[in-house]
What does this fold into?
Amino acid sequence: MLDNLEALANYIGANEPTESSMSRRVYKDTACGAWLEVAHNKDGTLWGVRVGSIIEGSDACVEPVELGFPFTEEAWDEAIRDVEAEAERLWVEAHGEG
It folds into this structure.
């Protein structure tokens, strides 16, 4: 179970449990160059994370997947798969197969 930034950082192999370190790790580990954003509640307390991707050479972007703490490793892996699949679909839509 991933219940905070430190647990997520450890799971994904980020150097630190910070937005910049974890986003860099996600970017490097995904074919689409996904990003990660730390999300907070209106009162400033930690809520969870969002992951998404832009599509280079187009105005398209992948709608962010939101994961509120706590969530499972499987939920994280599925979110990354979903972002990558949607990024691939949008890339083909914008640029064609080749």
About this structure: The CA atoms of residues 53 and 62 lie 5 Å apart.
